[in-house]
């Protein structure tokens, strides 16, 4: 069993979600798995998904989604409907795919509807904003909201925090 301080450090460092931490604090086997997979975000995401199941993606309310969607579309239209170059999209999408915050969408009607509208092959969402992550990575007006592990100046896409890529 890990010491409390080490458990707290791992929860913070790996940004472990609430649905995971209670069991993580008590289950030495789970602590072993997480410690072993610590440097591999994809494995960590799989372990979390097993423990949290459907709870992992917060079911953002319809009004929150409508507001987020409208505001993203407004910024996108204002920019002239810009998409990032393929190389930028590939970099962003690779980062999302190894990110703990990329999760399956909840099964609520709001998400089913949005996925029909955006029509993406990959329907996973960014847990931090509730957006379809693949669509988000394509739009020049969007940015990743989470700091990278190397410092607060850049986000997980490797772009300055808050910066939106120009076309
Ligand atoms: S946008 Fe950022 S926080 Fe969201 S899934 Fe992608 S890398 Fe993770």
Description:
- The protein is mainly alpha-helical.
- It folds into 2 domains: 4-56, no CATH class; 62-155, no CATH class.
- Helices cover 51% and strands 7% of the residues.
- It is built from 8 helices and 4 strands, in the order H-H-H-H-H-H-E-H-E-H-E-E.
- Bound molecules: iron/sulfur cluster (SF4).
- Iron/sulfur cluster binds next to helix 6 and helix 8.
- The site of iron/sulfur cluster (SF4) has 12 residues, from helix 6 and helix 8.
Gross morphology is: globular
Biggest sheet record: 2 strands, antiparallel
Helix-strand pattern = HHHHHHEHEHEE
**Total discrete domains:** 2
- The poorly predicted ranges are none
Q: What topology, given as strand order, has the largest sheet?
A: 1-2
Count of individual beta strands: 4
**Helix content, binned percent:** 40-55%
Distance between the termini: 51 Å
Précis, in short:
51% of the residues lie in helices and 7% in strands.
